[in-house]
Amino acid sequence: MSTLENIALGIDIGGSSVKGGLVNLELGELSSKKVKIPTPIKSSPQNIIKVIKEIINDLNIDKNIPVGVTVPAPVKNDVIESMANLDSSWANINLKKMIKEEIGIDAAILNDADAAACAELQYGRACGEKGLIFLSTLGTGIGTSLIHNGAVIVNTEFGHMDINGIEGEKIAAGSIKTKEKLNWDEWVERLQIYYSAIEKLFSPDLILIGGAISKEHRKFIPKLNLKTKVCPMKLKDNAEIIGIGYYSSKYNKK
Ligand code: BGC
């Protein structure tokens, strides 16, 4: 059952859409519809805040529940220092402060892949796993997070790792498959290069893959030739919303 004590609101700012939903913190699942609004063409902080407001109004939330927002960028003390896939005016924005000023709520702010890691650790495939887990989301960019013996290591940004002079996410993100019209085998070749480099550098015990494209994991995960076990994330493309909901309930208590 969803009561006010075990509910949080999670909002995930992405390169193609901004999504939000209420999270049942006991079950680790959405307890409302998922509201999905296309990312404004000018994806400035001001325009995204308007979308966040729309999502909050649509879900008609109780003002006492914890709220969390993920961003596709590293987050240091609530400040976005650089932004790869949204408007460059995000640099040096304190999102927590801005949300407080514009919407009047206290929100926890976290990188999107780190939020997904919180969700997988608490409710998903990383739950109870020992050793080093390399988590990656293959969307507009490549989001990454590390989980080691139950702790999430934030702001890792290995999507920007240099591979033969090109950033990893520019060759292997989910969006690249669409943009370059790659078939599954062609895209798997790219993923193979990316994850071989990751495997060599980190020797992980498990690689988790998420992002909307991970719903089609059967078409690419079995084709990867790696020593490390590779699994799709359990919470799929809801992991960011669920993870930031959980994180906000822990670290942004009202
Ligand atoms: C950003 C990361 C983000 C990832 C997925 C990358 O371009 O630098 O912070 O996690 O995209 O959205």
Q: Please report the first level of CATH classification, the CATH class of the largest domain.
A: Alpha Beta
| CATH architectural designation of the largest domain | 2-Layer Sandwich
CATH topology heading of the largest domain: Nucleotidyltransferase, domain 5
**Which cofactor or ligand species appear?**
beta-D-glucopyranose
Roughly how much helix do the residues carry, as a percent range?
25-40%
Question: Mean pLDDT score, rounded?
Answer: 96
Beta-strand percent range: 25-35%
The main sheet comes to: 6 strands, mixed
Describe the structure.
The strands form four sheets. Strands 1, 2, 3, 4, 5 and 9 form a six-stranded mixed beta sheet that branches. Strands 12-11-10-15-16 form a five-stranded mixed beta sheet. It has a three-stranded antiparallel beta sheet with strand order 6-7-8. The two termini are 21 Å apart. The chain is built from seven helices and 16 strands. A hairpin with a 2-residue loop joins strand 6 and strand 7. The chain has two domains: 4-112, Nucleotidyltransferase, domain 5 (2-Layer Sandwich), CATH 3.30.420; 125-233, ATPase, nucleotide binding domain (Nucleotidyltransferase, domain 5), CATH 3.30.420.40. The chain is globular, with a radius of gyration of 17 Å. The longest helix has 19 residues, at 184-202. It has 254 residues and is an alpha/beta fold. The structure holds beta-D-glucopyranose. Residues 72-74, 84-85, 111-113, 137, 139, 141, 143, 157, 159, 169 line the site of beta-D-glucopyranose (BGC). Beta-D-glucopyranose binds at residues 72-74, 84-85, 111-113, 137, 139, 141, 143, 157, 159, 169.
